[in-house]
Amino acid sequence: MQLASLIPNSANGTCCFPKGAVKQGGHNPIVQKQEQWKFLKSLAPPLVAAAVLTLSPICITPVSDAQTLDVQKGAALFRKTCIGCHDAGGNIIQPGATLFTKDLQRNGVDTEEEIYRVTYFGKGRMPGFW
């Protein structure tokens, strides 16, 4: 599409559009494009608002309230019974028996069931907590 440019037409300074820039019937393509652009700009705020709401954490709920409660109970139990030896996941009594994944795997405690068993019954110098 050729942009409309003004070309002097006479000595008195009047100007006109180049041939073909304005279609017959009074429809100016520049005005039409401006109207389309205004319409698209008017759609931007509602579309942005919809995207923000869709991706916002307000719309994302926890898996369940019970799971949230279990996590909170587990954290409280850890603070009560475990943190004395396992502060920050380490182990002040036996340095090779930390709660870090590599040490858990090396010591054969790599499943949820095994973690439960060791926590409940104890292992080595660690007593069981039930």
Describe this structure in words.
Keywords: Electron transport, Heme, Iron, Metal-binding, Thylakoid, Transport. Residues 69-130 form the Cytochrome c domain. It comes from Prunus yedoensis var. nudiflora. One of its GO terms (molecular function) is electron transfer activity. This is Cytochrome c-553. By secondary structure, the protein is mainly alpha-helical. The protein has two domains: 7-55, no CATH class; 65-127, Cytochrome Bc1 Complex, Chain D, domain 2 (Orthogonal Bundle). 46% of the residues lie in helices and 6% in strands. It has helices spanning 29-55, 65-81, 101-106, 112-121; strands at residues 7-8, 15-16, 122-123, 126-127. The strands form two sheets. It has a two-stranded antiparallel ribbon. Strand 1 and strand 2 (15-16) form a beta hairpin. Residues 1-7 have low confidence and may be disordered.
